[in-house]
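Two folds, back to back.
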Amino acid sequence: DLDMRFSSITGVVASEEKSRFERMIFRATRGNCYVRFAPIKQPITDPESGLAVEKSVFIIFYKSESIEVKLKKICDAFSAHRYSLPDMDDASSVDQMLTENAQELVDSRTVLLKNQDTRYRLCQMLAKHTERWTWIVLKEKAVYHSLNMFKADVSGMLRGEGWVVAENLDEVREAVEKAHANMDMAMPSLVDHVPQPWPTPPTHFVTNKFTYGYQEFVNTYGIPRYREANPALFTAATFPFLFGVMYGDIGHGLFLLCAGLFLLYKEKENDNAKLGELGEGLHAGRYMITMMGFFAVYAGLVYNDCFSLGLNLFGTRWEFDGQDSGSVEEGTIAYSTAQYGSSESVYPFGLDPIWHVSTNELLFFNSFKMKLSVIFGILQMFMGTCLKGLNAIYFNEKLDFFYEFIPMVIFAASLFLYMVFLIFYKWSIDWNSRMLSATCLDPNGDGWGSSDYAGEWIVCDQSGNGYCTPGGYSCVDGDDTAAKCPLNYGGSGDGCQPPNLITTLINIALQPGNVDEPMYYGQAGIQNILLLCAFGSVPVLLLAKPYIMSKQHENQRHSDEEGQGDDEEEHGFGEIIIHQAIETIEFVLGMVSNTASYLRLWALSLAHSELATVFWEKAMLSTLNMNFFATYIGFGVFAGTTMGVLLMMDVLECFLHALRLHWVEFQNKFFKADGVRFAPYSFKQIIKEAS
């Protein structure tokens, strides 16, 4: 009977390996064994990997000892854990083993619970000190890292060189002396100035909550040189203003302003909170967002634009015939409710809301915003050029001041500031009076003696066709404006016809001395002088500085460098010429292209107002006269498009364009952006970065 008994191997194997395990056994033993599996209900933690794994119990019946050797090798290959069992016929041994296993499980569970409780109490105790220990380790590492940069000096002293903010020098001395005294060392400590020449010092700016965001904008482009004019100071004023010019709308600006005020309200809470990358950026720019919203509302009040609608806050100064009864016809011309030019005829603040319902609305707003864009752009670029001169004065760079800054100012003032002057001068002229002075009227007609003419009305001898100009000229059939205008400024307009400023500016260079529609006496001669100044400044800007620098190098050349001095001098002078040529071309062409670039202020403002108009007319206005449900749906579409396009995408678009105007158009006039940022030794900053 014993010869007929089968031997067995029992154990546990991963369930995912069950099929491969069974197939391997079958092939190795050629089918001379019998295998049974039973899955374990709960996953078992693998002691090697620590992961929960689905496992199955197996039992293999076999007869030969050679098969047993193969089976054990297969079990080891599949990482199957084998267990020895007593003879199944010995019931007492089986019961004893079950009892022992149950008791062992209870004991193991008790030990595990005890270990878990001990670990928890140990971690709880260590957690009280972890942060303090981490800070100590970080401080120690920072101290040793700094000490490694010191150099050995006489008598075992260590000497280190570094930078310190000038106003904090006394504090540094006190801190070093105090630390040295605490070590009870006989040798004194010393903090003193390093003899010059120094390398270029790092740049440090003291910022507050308001200026921090603008300084980071500038630092993203480049760190200012030491003692160089800091663009962030000017950016803090001009950046939100130019954003408002592009985004000007009372309603949309109020949303942005409220978002900024909410961030200011949550300031203390967010200072101590762990925010994400987006949240940190919004928190850092909370004052910037508030100012952007404020200037958007301000520009919206100037444009009199609220969700594309004009607000009649102070009462319009124009009226249409039949507007009270709603019978205004297409093409009707509005009339002023007060005398032209009087204080009553001027809308108190911003533009008159009548423009929003007139057919020439787009023509007027385009002209107004285009001129504003040119004015703001030229003034900001000229301010950047002036900052270049201030930098030259501060650093005592006489060549840069006299042969770069002065020619640049002359070039910019002769053409571009003159453009601003023409815009304001054209705005200041009473064109109604000037055009009326060259208009033929019947002395006995109703138009004679109109208050629109600023001069004295003189009746002519009526020797021509019977009509007279207000200045007393007797009109003749076929007379042009120049013959009838009393100003005698020249050209076809003779000063009595408003000019096209773009044509006037183009003709300054293309047709010197020819002004078809002058605005003041001697305009052609003055423009010729300005053109000569502009053209004369270019060769000075290009050649004067390299020539003087080459002469200075010749005078300073030492006798011991004569062997290779000629080659070096030629090479150095060539580099100076190339650099100055690039500087000249960049400035001259940049003034033209940058002025055109500022037209984005007009373009984005126009796009914003037109999009708002489309959303209002197509989503709201078209559904108001239908029914309640259509109006409800229309408002949902209007609110959704306004939020997604105008309050999110357009804010980002105007933000990026305003940023580009400062980085490219403004800062390149004076900003070198090649400085090194001051990195003070700060435990607080080290701990903050580590956490």
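---
second:
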Amino acid sequence: AGRSWPAGAAGGGAMQRRLVQLLDEDKVVLEQSHRDLCVVIERTTSAFVRPKPSNAARNNGLAKKKPGLSRRASYLTPMASYHVRVGERFKELPTGECKAANLKTVPFHAVFGIYELLSGPYIALIRESKQTCSRSMGAVEPGEAEETMEFRRASMITILPLFRNARDLSPTMRADEDRYLDYLYSSFSSHVFYFSYRYDVTSTLQRRAFRSAMSRGAPKQELWRRASDRFFWNREAVQPLIDAGCGAQWVTPVMSAFIEVRDDVVVPGGRGAKDHKFTYLFISRRSKFRAGTRFWRRGLDFDGHAANEVETEQALLFDDGTVQAHVQLRGSIPVIWKSPVTLKYAPKVVISEDANGNAMAFREHMAAQALNYCIYGLTRDNLPTVSMKAIDAMPPPVLYMERSRSGSSNASNSSPNNSSSDVRNSHGSRTGLLGRSGKKEKAPKDAGSGATPGKTSWRHRGKRGEDRATAIATPAVAALRSPTRHDGTYVLADVAAPATPFEGWNGRIVCVNLVDCKGSQEQLGEAFKDQVDEAMHTVSGRQNMPGLTYVWFDFHRECSRMRWGNLAKLLERLRDGLRNEGYFYQLGEAGHRRIVCYQSGVVRTNCMDNLDRTNVVQSLIARHVLLRCLAGREGVAGVDQGVKGGDMLSGAGAPMTQPTPVKDALDNGSVLDSGLVALERVFKDVWGNNADAMSMLYAGSGALKTDFTRTGRRTIMGRIADLRNSVWRYYVNNFCDGARQDSIDLMLMNYNPRVERPSPFAPLNLHETVASFCTKIYVIFSVVFASSLVVLDRNLPRTLLLSITTVAAIVAFTAVRIFRSGGRIGTRIVAYPRLVSDRLNTEANP
């Protein structure tokens, strides 16, 4: 309760912050040492009219009549909310021993967010954190302050009620409240979160370098505005602080990621050359869009967001300030599909039959990847001065999307009362023509021509309203990543558009598909290929997506019977693409930094779950690029010639005059092992840890094939571990992932509890628990036992043996049928998410 700050309270470089709760008032103050301004959160009371409850609700005690109130007044329930404002610390907090006794103080490192539950608001605080990485990155220009790369790992997150007097709840609501708190606790404890007070942990090294180069002399943006919305996991939870103007000091972007730092990695430099000594930084950032569990979040949604999307960046940090980095991407197969659980080991795959919806989602997804990883208009002349900020501000083309369906009107004929800039139709797509302000404008006169009921068309408005290609993806997704708009609405600049949406796209997206060429996986692979072929068709002599490449490699067939060497075939097919894509290379010279070459493109890898096969292939690509990075450093060491030649732009480096271990490993080494012992030990261990971390979050178990990732070969113990993980995955995916999905949706605020809503945890129709299923088996056993006892003249041993055998045969037959084909029994037993029903999986809900 004292006003003094204990020495080292924050620890490890963390900011000294604390929450002060005034017990005699409905007020909470967030204060920070050496700052006069604080954040004040106060209770505000308002009333709302609850709809007349049903008989079942009355029986549960939801509408008990209060003494002294009329029947109608009993439905007026006071709703406790809160108000956030900025105040002065010494005016908001009382002084004196008497007043200080009514204070409750909680030290913390950062605010994760504020959650409104049934009883009132709760605040999630990062109470403890550990500094994972802290490294000076040098100055952008001589004389400027040096930047520090810092990653802090949240080690304890606490959920506290903001106010002492909570709202009165019925027993049912209290049970729901406890369940919500359990969900938040489960989600916070199962995820690994990272943050920083000044360093943008959500951006790659290349993006940060380009942004810094472009913003020289300009005021620095607030950290939360610079953060990438894909990896800003607490963005919605801290919105009240942003609205109150507290973003600069109190909003800390938090991301879910796997980060590992290995210092003092040494690679021999060859005869007469210095050894390469560097820090290996590995980051896998998980996207918050379509985040969830293995079978409940698959494929794309209608906005083009892919499930289980992970951006993996590996970087080599040298003592002289030189930085080399490369980025890869993984994500679910980019078509609209689902595979709802039914107790079948490999659930049935269902692909959306909406061709237009699939096409739009695919193109939105690829357009987003182009804007995230492909550089527009970069040349050798303007390379040092172009930044990702300029890419974000690039004027996108103005598009008109027209949808006509039976029973609904076109965007140009929409109701005048519907003035929202985010108009959604029954399919979840946005309609209307949006200008700079986000307001709906009149459509071109010929926009409504050629519309077919039940189909969707995209029209590109060129000069004088000229219509261009249909079904094209738009770089308007750049607006989705704008730091000022996070509601998913398009904010398009009303400027002249390029000839095609991807004109000026100086980059390449290589899609590597590792699914099988048989069964349902083949259907998904063909659907993926069809979308790529359609996206690559030419319009007016130009390609829609000139840099899109599709590579289908049947991993299981090619690598069956321990033929792991066949992975060299895949790497050979990707070699040219990796060379053209390049990598990020920044030299630290005399107090400032200079960009030598950059990465313009990305390899996007997927299998069915984007876990095991994907991790193996990504590790092979990462090893190849890492060796190219070291070879490029050998080629330019001590030579100040800037960007020179296509080889330098692609990151291959200048020709080397003498062989080195790195060059020998790059030219003659195995695809599975470079032969550099110290490097391989670190590299394989880090990639194995990454595989387990990503698999645990998405599938609920450790990764498969990690023995190959860690050692380069399959072992008996590795196969046993795969069997154990497969069994555990089966159990978790069928009986636990429903609650896990709910916990993620609640943490991301995809679902907001409300008192006026019915309980989402009411029993589902035709749903059956495992306990009731076991009870039925016991009843069957009892009937068989009693019948056998009568037939076999009360011979107890024979009766018992026959009963056990009969019931075991029935159970085994049923289990095999369920395991192989699922069916109604499996559909009724599995656990479903209760909070957010994915539109793609609604058909599977009972």
